[in-house]
């Protein structure tokens, strides 16, 4: 074991030249009894043979093999030069001169220690200026020397004294963006922070929170509870708060809305031949011929290189790749917007991951070439990402492969090439990287199908941005399709039809033209009221969270707001919004809508929506716990100011309606209404139309009793489906089955509508089912009077209603109720 005594670390030194620095570090080594002073000459000669600059302001001067006999004892000494000194002809500034005296192969062992710091740019910069030699000793040896005065406890395991448990709220799990934010935050704090999936942080399932790949490697999905521990209490609190706040992610996005909705076939061949099935990733139907694209395997030889030289090559390649990505980001931002550009921002973070760089450098120091070392280090990480259970996190493997290829191209001197297709084709590939996809030429590629990949991958997101029909996860069979095979790709439903008949090609072309016309017609008629073909009125409203979204909703044709999710006022800040803050937001929304209805839903916190600063107790089963109205009963400090703010606005805006979430008993509703009545009386507010959300099966079963007492019902199909089918709405594996068109869910909606009609009340639907075409039609057939959907869905829903008479839809709903499952219901509309 090679030691670095503190006295051989000289901080705050200065050197007027490289030679001066060599002299000083050699003097240190001589002082430590490591070398004969004549070894300095060997160090000088070595510098003439090869530059010992390693990167990040570190140089590792050492003697030539001929001077080894002048070594007395293997060891190192460090000269810190806060002002730096110019080292090589390229003007590299060196701030840490690590003089090495190694009698044999211990040389490599010493170098390996340097990997602890080499990839950590911020950490190294701290070492350039620290006034405490112990920091340098610790960084290079992994062990902190005991402090001179206070005897430090000689704790063997680096157990961190402060810890807390957190549950990850991010809809897409701990993916690259939040992980990067966390790693940067921890790095900046200077404290030690570890994350662990098990209580025992020393087990293999723990990560250093400054290391992006280690964090990703934990595979933390939404709802995973894990331990955060730190050596600093304030940092721990800041980290826990940041995790609760989503680390920059929008916590309102559900996995289901992040991926394209499950789609039925818009078109089918009359004479189906060979058909390959995958997962629809980007909407659209396209006719063309196929063309295989196999990414060229990069031939990466393992050419042993001088470690210092190889480390410098790697450093240069990483820098060049980083510069490339800056250009890609600018380009993608200009073409597709900031959201798509952020994908490549995440690539920069993968590139900068310290753990990966250190691992590569460590292999370099074992004597391997830079390209080989980097490929091995990244391959291991790609493989472990691929193994993660969560498909969204596993999809990040292709991002890392993309980054890997970018760096390897620089190391191997290869150019980045656009995919050449030789004309407009349907591209078939094992998988495509986000970079390849972003560079696809629209006139060379009509659409693509990949053997691997998933609908939430960055590749799929870019394809949607490009408007390029795409399907993924088709399986390896797609790779056997010969080039030039005529085909029809349906990127909405995920089908690839091979060798279609001429008649089917014509019919697909007709359908494509029809779809384009339909979209245009729907857009042109978006401001017409929602009605069926025979003129039966169905109000099409918008689900929005903020007053600022109202103008966009109205422009898309919204006839009101059917669901304002007020919890976002609470989720998007780090302290409680006051009564005045809330009043301002509700008032702005009510005013923006004029006389169109505004349905404000009272706070629905709990379940998947966590508000860190409320300090709510963690629940084993949060969807079945103190959520929605139940929480409001427990917390009048939250409920009363909200009701007061709403009542104050209702005094001036008669369009204000209120509804309560998560009502599961009659008692719930009466209790909530009584509280609102008190508030209204106190403030002299008028009667406010009052509704109950039907999200729990018991509310539907009690609709007969609730109906006389409410003004309306609004069905939350997202929750009603999860509670009826006992399927967590966030569960990735159950996502395909969690379909509100299941006849069991439809039966509960039927009960609700019948009870409401008996008492002259109306029923709306504000869950996701209202916005999909089949859902809108079946729900209207069941007698629903209002469909509240996301803004972009408004024109399409109105257009779908105009296609059918109310009688047709009633018949559709009656048949839907008789079906065995959701797929059969969908097939009634789009067989
Ligand atoms: C629902 O459950 O369908 C609903 C609209 O409420 P949320 O999605 O906000 O829970
Ligand atoms: Mg709900």
TrEMBL record:
Q: How would you classify this enzyme at the top EC level?
A: transferase
Q: Which domain of life is it from?
A: Bacteria
InterPro entries attached to this UniProt entry: HPr-like, HPr-like_sf, PEP-util_enz_mobile_dom, PEP-utilizing_PTS_enzyme, PEP_util_AS, PEP_util_C, PEP_util_CS, Phosphohistidine_dom_sf
Domain (PTS EIIA type-2): residue spans on this chain: 2-143
Q: Which GO MF terms are attached to this record?
A: phosphoenolpyruvate-protein phosphotransferase activity
Q: Does the keyword Nucleotide-binding apply?
A: no
**Mind listing the UniProt keywords for this protein, alphabetically?**
Cytoplasm, Kinase, Magnesium, Metal-binding, Phosphoprotein, Phosphotransferase system, Sugar transport, Transferase, Transport
What is catalyzed by this enzyme? L-histidyl-[protein] + phosphoenolpyruvate = N(pros)-phospho-L-histidyl-[protein] + pyruvate
Q: Where is this region: Disordered?
A: 254-274
Entry cofactors: Mg(2+)
Localization: Cytoplasm
In short, the EC number is 2.7.3.9
Say yes or no: keyword Kinase present.
yes
Domain HPr, first and last residues per copy: 161-250
Task: Report the family membership.
Answer: Belongs to the PEP-utilizing enzyme family.
- UniProt-recorded name of the protein: phosphoenolpyruvate--protein phosphotransferase
Q: Which organism is it from?
A: Deinococcus antarcticus
